[in-house]
Amino acid sequence: MAIKFAKRMEDLKASEIRELLKLTEKPEVISFAGGLPAPELFPVEEMKEISKIVLDESGTQALQYSTTEGFPPLREQIAKRMNSKNKTNVTKDDILITNGSQQGLDFAGKAFLDEGDIVLCESPSYIGAINAFKAYRPKFIEVPTDKNGMIMEELEKILETTENIKMIYVIPDFQNPTGRTWPLERRKKFMEIINKYEIPVIEDNPYGELRFEGESLPSLKSMDKKGLVIFLGTFSKIFCPGYRIGWTCASQKILSKFIFIKQGADLQASTISQREVSKFIDLYDLDKHVEKLKEVYERRRDLMLETMKTEFPEGIEYTHPEGGLFTWVELPSHLDSRVIMQDCLKNDVAYVPGGSFFPNGGKENCFRLNYSNMPDNRIIEGIKRLGEVLKQHMIVKENI
Amino acid sequence: MAIKFAKRMEDLKASEIRELLKLTEKPEVISFAGGLPAPELFPVEEMKEISKIVLDESGTQALQYSTTEGFPPLREQIAKRMNSKNKTNVTKDDILITNGSQQGLDFAGKAFLDEGDIVLCESPSYIGAINAFKAYRPKFIEVPTDKNGMIMEELEKILETTENIKMIYVIPDFQNPTGRTWPLERRKKFMEIINKYEIPVIEDNPYGELRFEGESLPSLKSMDKKGLVIFLGTFSKIFCPGYRIGWTCASQKILSKFIFIKQGADLQASTISQREVSKFIDLYDLDKHVEKLKEVYERRRDLMLETMKTEFPEGIEYTHPEGGLFTWVELPSHLDSRVIMQDCLKNDVAYVPGGSFFPNGGKENCFRLNYSNMPDNRIIEGIKRLGEVLKQHMIVKENI
Q1: Residues B50, B53, B59, B65: is their CA dihedral positive or negative?
Q2: Hey, are the CB atoms on A5 and B257 less than 8 Å from each other?
Q3: Domain ranges of chain A
Q4: Are A110 and B135 inside 8 Å of each other by CB?
Q5: Does residue B399 carry a pLDDT above 60?
Q6: For A129-140, how does the pLDDT look when each residue is reduced to its tens digit (9 = 90+)?
Q7: pLDDT digits (tens, 9 = 90+) for A50-76
Q8: What is the DSSP string of B12-34?
Q9: The complex's ipTM?
């Protein structure tokens, strides 16, 4: 006999991309590959004070085990915040604290997916969600998108003709990887369709509060009449990712399952991290902090897009995100962003090649750029380098 | 259509026990039900200082995303500690940081178990492991045990006659729930058998360092010649559980799979928690801290066992753990600990009924007692109350 892994492990192999991204970690590389917030904006001084206060006020409780559902005052703060920002009408009992919103993705897979079940998602979609779901061996159907997100006619066509769809995964606000946002009408139409077919929806909303322009739109969860929408939120993008504090907001029927899953998966989120995040919200103005982030990210988005405008060769398209962290670049269809990435790395600049964002593969003439993590001057320099490499590849092709 | 959960959710229902345990949370209840460390021994003052130092020295890194494998200096400290305490020969590259060791249990299930695969475990075994594995729908075979843990002849008989055994889950040191420890000879025999059959072993070791008497024994991992043993460790019992920092130590072939799983499950453990635990080990003497814990827990174990000796009626057996957190009580076979628990709750004392520790069920005349969490006087008072209830049940039966 020899060690035999579960079948699912065949689908979770070391990806080409993962290996590639390791090369972007060298300090000389200007990396637009990650999805990291700007570290210089983290409230380091405030958290020094907060951790002292939490340990002073409740040291033994903060270092002990606590409930699987999470710290009740934090769950209350989150419910209140969602009701204000996402136009929902939820209470702390609808909230489970998770290790970042990524854990909610894993739990959704665990709760809903048997082998061979079908997941619908936007095409392209978030690579981390695709990988989390893959552990449960579903099939993916990618719903076509346009500049306003998922196309509702296409969604309906698929729902009408497909058996065994167990859940639909969407990012309506500043999508990862495209930066696109669904307009209000499309959200309404989506919920109309969902209520008809009664399929659970994972609404992943890590960036919703980071809107630089345009009007804030109600979440799908706020239009959820039948308890079908599972809203995933996180403090990683509006506060700091280092604490790994996110949440799942869902109807009791679904949340109770997620709580059992959490119990088996790791008992509970960090007690002290939950109390520290909660105390920060108590003592500081998180809205004001988010305002500061938005100011910086908007400037960086503008810098990136402006520099792309002057430095990229003709024939390349990219999105204009109204918020969030990413823009999405589409090259002429004959170009392969994995090949170009090799040359980028030689020039110490990096992005994530687009192919991995399509769960069923096949589209390689695109890539994702992050603008939140690099300082202004590195954004300009990085886009210039990238422009040079792209020019070479466009020219090479023309000469063949 | 209506919401359809995955088949695994049928096995993860609200347990009777879970509901029962909620009743033990009232402050007036003397609860021996949990597995909580003594909060008054947590290094609260030290952690106040540590969190300031970590944020001073590396605030922006501590609050940012970091690698899935974990903070390299902490992984090094763990490897060094394991080599000293558990007699292994491992390096930081063999270590993955997890959210407590519970997460390693979930990952083991995910890595090895397809539906219907077989898991071997001690009978009884840790309820949290059973529940973590259940999410992957295996069958359990309970290997009979005696006062020295798993019986090797029984193990061999099962291995000889059973197909499709994917992993073996064991707690050789101060087992949960029985408090029993495998002697050296049995460990050697176990590894001999394992090397022959080449089946992955989960060695769960949350309590190993908490030995009050007898000689420390080498871990199974230290005798692992073929990379079959997956060692799960945690800081929850020797430091504090509130940070949720544990680890998995395994051969590259297995650890690489766990790393992919971690990436999909929640990206990484808390950056700041990892740095704080690491800094504590740097600046303080964790061994000295563990000595203090052992002193208190040994006294509480003695108090509990001595009080049981005088207060429990005749005909009840219980283990004498050489370390760890639990003792295991066996009642005459006609008694049901779930029924007795109802009367215990009326008298504000609680334990965990034993049935849930048997994955295939069927044995109800036993229960688990924890002695680490309650202060000395509450241990004496609680055992007295428990003794009263037990006497009533023994007498009732005799009168029938």
Answers
A1: negative
A2: yes
A3: 13-42+288-399, 44-283
A4: yes
A5: no
A6: 999 999 999 999
A7: 999 999 999 999 999 999 999 999 999
A8: SPPPHHHHHHHGGGSTTSEE--S
A9: 0.96
In CATH terms, is domain B14-42+288-399 a member of 3.90.1150.10?
Answer: yes
**Which residue is associated with the tokens 């174990």?**
B301
CATH code at B44-283 = 3.40.640.10
Mean pLDDT to the nearest integer, B177-186: 98
Contact across the interface for A37 and B64, Cβ inside 8 Å? yes
Token look-up 């997941």 returns A119
Q: Which two tokens stand for residue A338?
A: 């994995």
Mapped to the 3 state alphabet, what secondary structure does B30-80 carry? EECCCCCCCHHHCCHHHHHHHHHHHHHHHHHHHCCCCCCCCCHHHHHHHHH
Classified by CATH at the fold level, domain A13-42+288-399 comes out as Aspartate Aminotransferase, domain 1 (3.90.1150)
The residue of chain B with its CA nearest to that of A41 is B60
Q: Which residues pair with B122 in a beta bridge?
A: B143
Q: Judge if B14-42+288-399 and B44-283 fold alike in CATH terms.
A: no
Å from B400 to nearest chain A CA? 41
How far, in Å, CA of B373 to CA of B351, rounded?
12
Q: Which of B60, B135, B166 sits opposite A261 (nearest CB)?
A: B135
Which of B98, B100, B272 lies nearest to residue A243, judging by beta carbons? B272
Instruction: Give contacts of B256 with chain A, Cβ < 8 Å.
Output: 14
CB contact (8 A) between residue B36 and residue A103 = no
Substitution target in A97, A113, A270, A325 with the highest count of B β-carbons within 10 Å is: A270
Q: Which residues of A touch B5 (CB under 8 A)?
A: 111-112, 257
Chain A residues near residue B50 by CB distance under 8 angstroms: none
Q: Which of A1, A3, A42 sits opposite B253 (nearest CB)?
A: A3
Q: What are the CA-CA distances from residue B7 to residues A20, A117, B129, B313 (Å)?
A: 37, 11, 19, 45
How far apart, in whole angstroms, are the C-alpha atoms of residue B238 and residue B226? 29
User: CB A65 to CB B3 under 8 A?
Assistant: no
